Amino acid sequence: MNQSRLAFLFLAFTNIALPQAADHVTAEREVRDTISRYFAAWQDGSRETLASLTRPSSTRFSSGATRLGNLFGRTTGDQRKLAHFIRHLEFLRPDVAVAVGLWRDTTPGAAYASGAFNYTLVHEGQSWKLATVHETLNQPLPALDSSVPAEPLKKDGDWEILFDGQSSGHWLTLGGARDLGQSWRVAEGCLISMPGSQGADLRSDREYRSFEMKWEWMASARSNSGVKYRLFGADTINFGPARYAAGWEYQMADDAGDPGARVDDRQKSGALYGVVPVAQPAARPAGEWNESRLLVTGDHVEHWLNGILTARYPVDFAFDSPVLLQHHASEVRYRNIRVRRILPN
Fold it and tell me: Which end of the chain is less enclosed by CB atoms within 10 A, N or C?
């Protein structure tokens, strides 16, 4: 995964007592709950709830560090549908936390579709409150290239076959082009990310909201990749055409050889990358095939690997999104990629 992570360097030079294990779990749950209630208050346009969740002296900033009197692109009183995703949560002290994540406005016709946030929260009295709010905008996902007709979709019952071992016709670059260039190739019945090439993620040429996805994959030594879903927008980590996307990621790696996977259960295969650790390691060694299953519903997500449930977590608003294969400058092979849509009850 190539997303940047905050480094709070002063922790290395100060003797700060962080919460003990049990208290840390409670504090993290309370911080996440405060942020969820904060987004819900914006959705409902509730000034009273917003006031109860923020310090009277709280400060809001735009992406250019300009002080704002309101959240970027939002006004109270509007009925919005705001999905959010906390990528990283750090305690600077037992009573101070920083949350970094993504937001997306799923309201039809929203002026600002998605972005990133950096919230500082403090514990006052019996509750956590937001002290600073810093929000930025993500680039929207580029429109699909309509100049080349889509390949006819093959189906197996309810399953849509996105890769049959022969054609990459249902996969596009993030920019929407059907020419995959030098980053990917189809060989030996596999869709293969090419090491040493300029990485470019691939997205499906159709979108999904609630779905089940199955695929097989093989990691090469020290490789790293992932399947992303519910994309929040193009990740603004570089200038020029969008090549990467921000969203939830089913992690895939050589668990024994990838530096991150060796030391962090949140970077092992089957994890929600960087957020939810694997409940039980289940990846096979590099050079062997793995079977993955992803279940995405309106209220929760499940990651399965080789028949084992490795991660499960709740979600808020569902929205339509492509699924995406990550290119991480290493070779990972995919085959038998299929998706089954789940209709609402």
Answer: C
Separation of alpha carbons 53 and 110, rounded Å: 25
Distance CA 324, CA 336 (A): 15
Phi/psi region, residue 159 (left: phi>0; alpha: psi -120 to 50; beta: rest), is beta
Cβ neighbourhood burial of 164 (10 Å; 0-12, 13-18, 19+): middle
Architecture of domain 9-137: Roll (3.10)
Residue 128 has pLDDT above 60, yes or no: yes
Starting at the earlier edge strand, list the strands of the sheet with 171-173: 171-173, 202-204, 324-325, 224-234, 245-253
Higher pLDDT, 4 or 171: 171
The residues, any chain, with a CB within 8 Å of residue 340's CB and separated by 6 or more, are 158, 159, 160, 211, 212, 213
pLDDT level of residue 5 (50, 70, 90 thresholds) = very low
Please, are residues 220 and 330 in contact by the beta-carbon 8 Å criterion?
A: yes
Amino acid at 280: Q
Residues of the chain with CATH 2.60.120.560: 154-341
CATH placement of domain 154-341:
2.60.120.560
- Extract the tokens encoding 51: 């006031």
